[in-house]
What does this fold into?
Amino acid sequence: MTLTFLPPDEAAWQPGDEPEAIGSLLFHPLANLFPLIEGEAFAELVADVAANGLQEPIELLDGAILDGRNRYRAALAAGVTVHTRQFKGADPLGYVISKNLHRRQLSTGQRALIAARLATMGQGARTDLADPSANLRKVSQEEAARAVGVSDRSVTTARDVLDHGGAELVAAVESGRIAVSAAADLAALPLAEQKRVVEILDPRALAGAIRQARDLKTAEKKARRAGREAALATRQRALPDKRFGVIYSDCEWRFEPYSRDSGMDRAADNHYPTTSTNDLVLRDVGGIAAKDCVLFHWATAAMLKAAIRVMEGWGFEYKSHFIWSKDRTGTGYWNRNKHELLLVGTRGDIPAPAPGEQWPSVIEAPVGAHSAKPEIFAEMIEAYYPNLPKIELNARRARPGWDVWGLEAPEAVA
It folds into this structure.
């Protein structure tokens, strides 16, 4: 049978309608979130379409297939008429998810990969559509996880696979041949080794490769930590002699897990040298503070009590705090943390912001590199105190008009 197409039409199509050729169709990015069916399952679909034709029209959005990619491919293979209609709903994403999740049995790993891809889409994202106006609304990782029915942690694991895994490893998770958690471990291996493991896919070889990848990750963390520890002795500078009206502090907190044997994998010690609370209290930050000074002091939820103790040890009185609301959920014991606290303390007679000039107490900002803080908080401090001399403790970058101090602190910018 010659391949023909029925044009998109708001009216329901009827078998026997005169077809009109409209050319080949692209796949919409929302449809491409889901893996195509292959192998025996696709062969069975081709046979069914060849025998019975398309029982449901192909759904189009912006000239591309929103729903029906597999039926379309089967129609091409079987040489039967392709029926199409325009999507008229208000929520194409919800439609695609509903259609695909109800039709297929997808593993947790496959769903997590779908959510991870969905969370990387946003307004103005580049697509493979001919029409550049086909923008996609921004979906947070938490929303994406909820939409496909997986945990936020599974999506974080899947993003690691997408970021570091080779095409073969990602395809293996898409097809359900490898669990996403195992793939995240394998992603630490060189791409050639990833490909070899996927091609063999022997359970013993897979288990050995996962152990190798985990050992490699552990060794890399230890090496980074040892290098930073050595650098601390040679690079960390003494506190300056100047006096500052604004101090912005991000302490290298040492958090003790329930068990050092099992709880250190994500500890800060793997990323940089940490300092005990007692030693932080003894750090002479009060000696660089002006008589009238404000301290902006970062604290995690678990270290809140310690942070207030350090603040008081430096000679500051706690006044208030801001909340950094993150776009990604982290770890925790009582809950899975999605925020950090920026405490505010003062000594002497430091002016608070003028009425009407205060920023909101909750500030949303994306998560960056490990322990890095969003630039918007430094911008807020500058807006509050544009003229006071400022210093950032444990700074990672230089800012004009600021002094900086710490292991990773660059040279100050005039």
